[in-house]
Design brief:
Blueprint: H1 2-18, H2 21-68, H3 79-82, E1 88-90, E2 96-98, E3 106-112, H4 116-134, E4 139-145, H5 154-164, H6 170-184, H7 191-201, H8 205-214, H9 216-230, E5 239-242, H10 258-275, H11 278-326
Parallel strand pairs: 3-4
Antiparallel strand pairs: 1-2, 2-4, 3-5
Helix pairs in contact: 4-6, 5-6, 5-8
Length: 327
């Protein structure tokens, strides 16, 4: 019996050792499926990476093409005639100035090309200002600001315009920028459009690029911002100052309506005109008697003695001499 039990135990061992073979085969298949799934994930990941790279390459190519495409840069119809034959210069700070530098009334425009309100005021007031400049009543100064509106690259537009002043084209470029803002919105001041604007005005690209690269205009923009913030009653762009003073309403707020600003300018012109003629009025009575008496005193002796006596006395003397000779 004992031997039989030992035999049963011995016989049962192979059966126990043979059973694990089934889980091993099943485990191999499971491991293979796991490896297959991992390979599939890697393939998908690779496809995604390649697709992303290709997509980015296409996107960059499209952007490159768009950035380098020539863009429209129209000159407003009235611009060329508007500024024809008007003197242009720069102030001591470097701000563009239109008109005679020694004009008694100077109108300073604190303005920003990226600001829609600045464009509106420009459209409403520029022709009236130019008329007063032509009449030699005022000079107009542009104080270049940026960042007071939502149109991108307002700083680049300001730099481009001020550098155009080196070629006496600031005011034309200034009109173009405001016109573009109304036409093209967020695409108004792309680098391509700014460069196309230089070509439209016939400016020298190399000279303009040297001005931009010098960094001097950036310093000027900093000065302009500091001057604006220091100006009493400055409340953002646009702000107009007349001889350094911001005209105020009855409520002591800066005037913003074009009609009110023009009225304030005309009032200053009248005030200054009432003061300036005083020395001229004093000088005229002193010089008038001298001018009147001198011609009369000179003309009367010449007319009485020379013309009248010469023709009458000369013929008579000649006739008498001839008669005596004949007698």
């Amino acid at each position: 019996m004992a031997q039989q039990r030992r035999n049963r135990k011995t016989d049962s061992k192979p059966e126990q050792s043979a059973q694990p073979s089934r889980p091993t085969a099943s485990g191999s298949r499971a491991a293979e499926r796991i490896r297959e799934r991992e390979r599939e994930r890697q393939r998908r990941r690779l496809i995604m990476i390649v697709g992303t790279v290709v997509g980015l390459a296409v996107l960059f190519a499209v952007i490159f093409i768009l950035v380098n495409l020539p863009q429209e840069a129209p000159i407003p119809q009235a611009t060329t005639a508007r500024y024809a034959d008007l003197p242009v210069s720069r102030t001591q700070e470097g701000y563009p100035l239109l008109g005679e530098p020694n004009a008694s009334v100077k109108v300073s425009l604190y303005s920003s090309f990226d600001c829609p309100s600045c464009r509106d005021l420009h459209d409403q007031i520029i022709d009236e200002l130019v008329t007063r400049v032509r009449d030699e009543k005022i000079a107009v100064i542009y104080v270049p600001l940026f960042g007071y509106g939502t149109v991108p690259n307002g700083q680049g537009a300001a730099i481009a315009a001020v550098c155009a002043a080196e070629q006496q084209a600031f005011w034309q470029f200034h009109d173009m920028l405001f016109d573009w803002q109304g036409r093209y919105g967020n695409q108004s001041f792309t680098n391509n459009r700014l460069v196309a604007g230089l070509d439209a005005l016939g400016l020298n690209r190399g000279q303009h690029s040297a001005c931009v690269a010098s960094g001097s205009v950036q310093e000027l923009l900093t000065t302009a911002r500091n001057n604006a913030l220091a100006l009493l009653s400055f409340n953002g762009a646009p702000t107009v100052a007349i001889n350094g003073v911001v005209p105020l309403s009855e409520e002591q707020t800066a005037l913003t309506a074009a009609a009110d600003i023009l009225a304030a300018i005309d009032a200053e012109i009248e005030r200054v005109s009432a003061i300036e003629p005083i020395p001229e009025a004093t000088a005229e009575p002193e010089s008038a008697p001298a001018l009147e008496s001198t011609p009369e005193a000179t003309a009367e002796p010449a007319g009485a003695a020379v013309p009248e006596s010469t023709p009458e006395s000369t013929p008579e003397a000649t006739t008498e001499a001839a008669a005596e000779a004949g007698g």
